[in-house]
Amino acid sequence: MHIRDLTYAEFGSVITEIDLGNLSLEEWERIYSLWNDRALLIFPKAFLTKDNQDTFAKRFGALEFPRTAISNVGKGGKIHHESGDDVVKVIRGNEGWHHDSTYMPVQAKGAVFTAEIIPAEGGLTGWADMRAAYDALDNDLRDTLSELSAYHSYYYSQGRDGYLPSSQNDDGTYNAYGFHDGEASLRPLVKVHPGTNRPNLLIGRHAHDIIGMEAQESEDFLDELNDFACFESRTYFHDWEEGDAVVWDNRRLMHRVTPYDMTQPRRMWHTRIAGSPDSELADNYR
Ligand code: OGA
Ligand code: MN
Asked: Which CATH architecture has domain 2-275?
């Protein structure tokens, strides 16, 4: 196993000379402790099979959901590209910085993500380090943030960007993952990472309505905080090659996709690792 740390930011390592479908206990322990430290591990050209992807993900914890296509390629090879298409709306929503499943009662722990079909241009995945962002704050702002909590909701993020699905149920829900009928999840803006005990920002496009602020004041405040947090020097964008696999720590990092020509096919596979109720359950679900 060969490890090379990325130098663009304070996170990310590239691992080669490893067979993810056949890890020794020693290799696995090294990978897990490196993941805790570096938050993003990249395995170029790993070409994981469906089963190997989910089996690898399960080493990190129980699954929130097994390997699922994140793709504009639909049934029978149909390419979803029109702006009013519900598949397109989900993908375009992913262009905004976010942590996965902060809108669910339990935030995700991480994801194993692999590339099968890549467009000629764009469609990179970027990550931003919310621990480095927290560390870069001045003391006054840290004190202010330590007292604040916001709601996280997929209705909010998709609604704000004009990406709600075209048909709504009578009870106000939509038939797509994330549009649950429970309360929006209330989460502190500063999360203490359960693996390292280091504080990091917990923000992104799903966060809204900080307790104690007017809606507009909160939106402006969070927009500014997101911009600061995702400043270039705290990001890394991966230009995919077919077969690449990554695993990211969703408690610490945000991520997004860069725009691409949606008349071209892109197919990625996402296995979502469930957070722990001890550390990732929303405050209002305790
Ligand atoms: C996701 C996501 C980004 C991408 O799968 O949760 O945000 O690059 N994907 O497709
Ligand atoms: Mn995502």
From this structure: 4-Layer Sandwich (3.60)
